[in-house]
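Question: Hello, beginner here. Any chance you could explain the protein record under this note? Any guidance would be welcome.
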Amino acid sequence: MIIPWQQISNDALSGIIEEFVMREGTDYGEAEISFEEKKLDVQRQLNNGDVVLVYSELHETVNLMAANDFKG
């Protein structure tokens, strides 16, 4: 189920974004991108609706995923 990211605390959202960025790895090609820039990019994608915050009842986890990939 999609969780409206605007309805969770800033601290919780920040933690979810940080965990997601750390999990995604660090190899982004020739240009180095800072951790802060990566977090801001994820936040921008949430703002634009390109990424959604998804709760899995089965696994009791929260994750970020591309809105196009989410199958409700």
In short: The two ends are 6 Å apart (CA to CA). The helical segments are 10-24, 35-48. Strands lie at 2-3, 51-56, 61-66.
